[in-house]
Amino acid sequence: MEAISARDAADKWGISQRRDAVLGSENRIPDAEMAGSMRIIPTIAEKTIDTRSAGYNISDEKRVKPFLKWAGGKSQLLKEIEQYYPFKNGTVTKYAEPFVGGGAVLFDILSKYNLEEVYISDINAELINTYTAIREHIDELLTLLSLYQNEYIPKETEQRKVYYMAKRERFNDLKANGNEAENIEKAALMILLNKTCFNGLFRVNKKGMFNVPMGAYKNPLICDEKNLMAVSEKLQNVKIVCGDYRESANFIDEHTFVYFDPPYRPLTETASFTAYTENLFNDEEQIELARFVECMHKKGARVLVSNSDPKNSDTDDDFFDTIYANRKIKRVEANRMINCNSEARGKIKELLISNF
User: Fold this and answer.
1) Is the four-CA dihedral 300, 301, 304, 310 of positive or negative sign?
2) Which residues fall within 8 angstroms of residue 203, CB to CB, at 6 or more apart?
3) Inter-residue contact 149 to 222 (CB < 8 Å)
């Protein structure tokens, strides 16, 4: 029997040696044999079907969805974004999302693919604390959320306002003065406030305090136990980091698909609803991100960036066309769902910028 090495088989099938080793360790390469520490593979062996390929139907997998409503969330653009997923041929085995936000793309990918490594991060400490609490303390979190739901739902509007303001004050106190022992409570409060506040908006003032008023939802689902349990399961092998997007550099390599969804550049000078943290993301920081994207491109990563299209308000504004002049830019249609001015909501163009 003619045979080839695992390295040659990986090259032949267009997959990474790391992925080839995983398939071998799972006994998914027909007739492969070990010769000492080396795996020998018949030259006639066919590439194994990979559960992460776009054509593979993972019917028994639990689908998960974002557990928070997040300004700029990408649920409505998933049909466009999924066209960029590069997991089909098995050479891209890692995923990184350094501005994870509500995680619509993250959860879509986790629902469809079994990747070797996944990395998420965000500078919003309360958001990352909530992801971590869901992964590590789901039972305690669900107990608190169930309590909040049972306390909030039966109340009349004025009683709800009093309850909401008390919980908002408690959340801000924990945000400013809390310790690790109270992180589960802080995570539960964040979900409660997100489900009951105006438009599901997360916004802070210059002091970093959450300041969104109560919304008018009649019967909000505060404790979505089924989805949160599924999210917890999906996050078990995900690396979760609270920090700047640049910290992802050590994770990203030629086997990585990276999705950057930074705070959007405001379409007008008066647009202030993008203040999700005390730290604003100005034009200079957008330029710095473009430079970082170029560095990740040179490392061989597949990169996708999304942002607002300044041409919505000024057809002569070439800001992103200029800073991403070497990349492919696609304009897609989206609905702006969160805006304090109801007349400003509606269809706009957003940008999808890629290096492939």
Assistant:
1) negative
2) 210, 211, 212, 273, 275, 276
3) yes
DSSP 191-204: HHHHHHBGGG---B
Q: Is the pLDDT of residue 28 over 70?
A: no
Angle at alpha carbon of residue 105, lines to 307 and 222, rounded to 5°: 105
Locate 17 and state its tokens.
């040696």
Token representation of residue 34: 């070990």
Closest CA to 222 of 196, 185, 186: 196
HSE-CB at 349 with a 13 A cutoff on CA atoms is: 12
Confidence of residue 174 (pLDDT cuts 50, 70, 90): very high
pTM above 0.90, yes or no: no
Rounded Cα–Cα distance for residues 34 and 37 (Å):
7
Amino acid identity, position 246? R
Asked if 350 and 310 count as a contact pair (C-beta separation under 8 A), the reply is: no
Query: Distance between alpha carbon 158 and the CA centroid of its chain, in Å?
Result: 36
pLDDT tens profile 193-219: 999 999 888 998 888 899 999 999 999
Torsion over CA: 200, 129, 102, 146 (sign): negative
Q: Which of 220, 305, 214 is nearest to 265 (CA)?
A: 305
Q: What crossing angle do the helices spanning 17-25 and 6-13 adopt, rounded to 10°?
A: 110
Mean pLDDT across the stretch 155-160? 98
Residue with tokens 């040659």: 8
Angle CA 340–345–351, to nearest 5:
115
CB neighbours of 162 closer than 8 A, spacing ≥ 6?
Answer: none
Q: In Å, how far are 9, 37, 129, 171, 222 from 204, measured between CA atoms?
A: 53, 56, 16, 12, 21
Most distant CA pair in the chain, distance: 80
Distance CA 273, CA 192 (A): 20
For residues 97 and 60, the model is more confident at 97
Please list, in sequence order, all residues whose beta carbon lies within 8 angstroms of the beta carbon of residue 173, skipping any fewer than 6 positions away. none
pLDDT of residue 301: 98
